[in-house]
Amino acid sequence: xxxxxxxxxxxxxxxxxxxxxxxxxxxxxxxxxxxxxxxxxxxxxxxxxxxxxxxxxxxxxxxxxxxxxxxxxxxxxxxxxxxxxxxxxxxxxxxxxxxxxxxxxxxxxxxxxxxxxxxxxxxxxxxxxxxxxxxxxxxxxxxxxxxxxxxxxxxxxxxxxxxxxxxxxxxxxxxxxxxxxxxxxxxxxxxxxxxxxxxxxxxxxxxxxxxxxxxxxxxxxxxxxxxxxxxxxxxxxxxxxxxxxxxxxxxxxxxxxxxxxxxxxxxxxxxxxxxxxxxxxxxxxxxxxxxxxxxxxxxxxxxxxxxxxxxxxxxxxxxxxxxxxxxxxxxxxxxxxxxxxxxxxxxxxxxxxxxxxxxxxxxxxxxxxxxxxxxxxxxxxxxxxxxxxxxxxxxxxxxxxxxxxxxxxxxxxxxxxxxxxxxxxxxxxxxxxxxxxxxxxxxxxxxxxxxxxxxxxxxxxxxxxxxxxxxxxxxxxxxxxxxxxxxxxxxxxxxxxxxxxxxxxxxxxxxxxxxxxxxxxxxxxxxxxxxxxxxxxxxxxxxxxxxxxxxxxxxxxxxxxxxxxxxxxxxxxxxxxxxxxxxxxxxxxxxxxxxxxxxxxxxxxxxxxxxxxxxxxxxxxxxxxxxxxxxxxxxxxxxxxxxxxxxxxxxxxxxxxxxxxxxxxxxxxxxxxxxxxxxxxxxxxxxxxxxxxxxxxxxxxxxxxxxxxxxxxxxxxxxxxxxxxxxxxxxxxxxxxxxxxxxxxxxxxxxxxxxxxxxxxxxxxxxxxxxxxxxxxxxxxxxxxxxxxxxxxxxxxxxxxxxxxxxxxxxxxxxx
Length: 816
Description:
Blueprint: H1 17-23, H2 31-37, E1 45-52, E2 54-58, H3 65-71, H4 74-84, H5 90-101, E3 107-109, E4 112-116, H6 122-131, E5 151-154, E6 157-163, H7 164-177, H8 184-194, E7 197-199, E8 204-207, E9 212-214, H9 221-243, E10 254-258, H10 265-271, H11 276-283, H12 294-321, E11 345-351, H13 352-360, H14 367-382, E12 397-399, H15 406-409, H16 413-416, H17 419-432, E13 436-437, E14 442-443, H18 450-460, E15 465-467, H19 494-504, E16 518-521, H20 523-526, E17 530-536, H21 542-565, H22 578-593, E18 597-601, H23 607-614, E19 620-621, E20 628-632, H24 633-647, H25 649-654, H26 658-669, H27 675-684, H28 697-726, H29 730-736, H30 740-750, H31 755-767, H32 773-792, E21 803-804, E22 809-810
Antiparallel strand pairs: 1-8, 1-9, 1-11, 2-3, 2-10, 4-6, 5-6, 7-8, 11-17, 12-15, 13-14, 16-17, 18-20, 19-20, 21-22
Helix pairs in contact: 6-7, 7-8, 7-9, 8-32, 9-21, 9-28, 9-32, 14-21, 17-22, 24-26, 27-28, 28-31, 30-32
């Protein structure tokens, strides 16, 4: 490996980055001391997760809220009226009527629910009333202006009408408030964790009950996996409580909440049949929980949807500018964008060392230092993100020939990549996909009319493509810097300047935070210093995929500081012009598409990338692009792993991550063992074919949704039982029961049996959805205690609440 020469100093600080780290105790006198004192190494890191779930309501169109809301809406009545006057074609109404009528499984994605108010306990009713406040911090202001839409009156009874995201919070409140003789500790824990069920975007979101300490003695990333499993299992119990005690099942509704990365197929079809305004009315979350000013947050979500929908339309012009669209034969994207219904996981790491240095308030390590180093770490890690895509998380998706209109499938890439890399990706993607007329050797893209495109595909066997992680393509994952306002140059205020530039270019709205693959979390805003990984889609296994991914994210963050502390990495090594930024990010997006190769300038100014490519086998000059070299993705990943093992050897040993490295090596060697490979295998279990390209796209994607909803959800529940049980070993309980409050709470939950016995006796009934109300209450209590016991190991940590991007302030005080 060639050494990278050191250039540059902290902006206006007069100290090198290495000197700044030395001032806060990073000791580079030996590899071992360096590995023990770096930020994010040697037990310095903490971890919290935010998970987005898919929610469905199952039932008749006459019982479920979504079809009822559509049928009874003024929108539906108005389009019928306009058709009768000859102002609208019959097709507009027929498409919507077909969508309502053609649903034999009775599955309504992202529908709200209706439940009898009388079934709620007094505490849940009071919580609901409080959440209707326009400002929860000042309830005297009165109720939200939209409060009436959450209450219905039918046949002399009052019903609540709420999204599933809020139903989960309400259900936990109801479990807590319905118990007689409940120990005060259980009540306090339950109410505290209610606030971790968020109402945001479209899908239910929940964030960590406590921060996991990433230490080799706690299992590193497996501690975060266990915490995630606790929340997931609790969520399953809350849906059952809502169906039973809260009366959903009696009203013809059942609820499922599970991990799934894509907007559902039927929701996409509905989106193509209605206006963007009506879509927002149906699916934008009212934000009843998680925000002091929920109605204001709800309006912010409308803003996000409008901006992304506008950007989707404007992308057509950018594709023309890039030379990808060369004529007027285009299929306009829908005026309503559905990408906010994508679901992923955000993994946030915090550093005790950095947070303590910033909390000290002296000038050894201040906000400017944090920002400078944070942007540099993010740029470093972006080079390694291809290791994660499809390897640890994935979102496999089938596209047919008729989908390959660049203005549709390239989605937000025109805002994320330089035009040169955008053209390269499009050319290589068309070559990868099955779009060739084999008898004639011609490669086609669809013409536009659906009937013609489908007929061509059938006649010539044009099968389209399968992507390892379509979610990362179908969502605004990372906005590109401008020449005047780099996003990651280390200067305070750079993101605000970028937002203003993007707003002037009609790409963004300055009220929104810039989308990033890897985002710094600053101490002044969050109360801790760290980084958020936002590139995760769906984990096939919580322990093996999520756990190992957290390990790797932590190791790479520490490795970035390792290079900085050695004086081997500075901003000058990774230039901040948009072309260099796009050059490294094209590798990430190419991995999400599943492209075999990418191209890099032979004289690239990115010295870190050049160093990586020196270790990459099979690199050669490109025949098609003079001045570029061709690199194979799998060989690039091999080089990344080699660099990690060589430069991070002391870190790997000190963090006990040898097994994580071996696991990654096997994933890279055997693609069938990656998250993507296992997910595709699970989806294909329902087909006789062995190749996803032999399955029609809509059938594959619908089968994927069913697999996530049923088999994978059951697998995650089983895994959660195992992880929770392992966290309640005898020695753990013995130490915990030294606290009489914990001992009393356990006695209340267990009624004389062991936690493992209770868990195993309830496993089969949980999987069969046959728990009684008493069973649910006991299991909920045990999970609350298990989370409290684990949180007790980290009692000196602070759980960061989600950040209110509208008010630029935390929603409430941190929970200790």
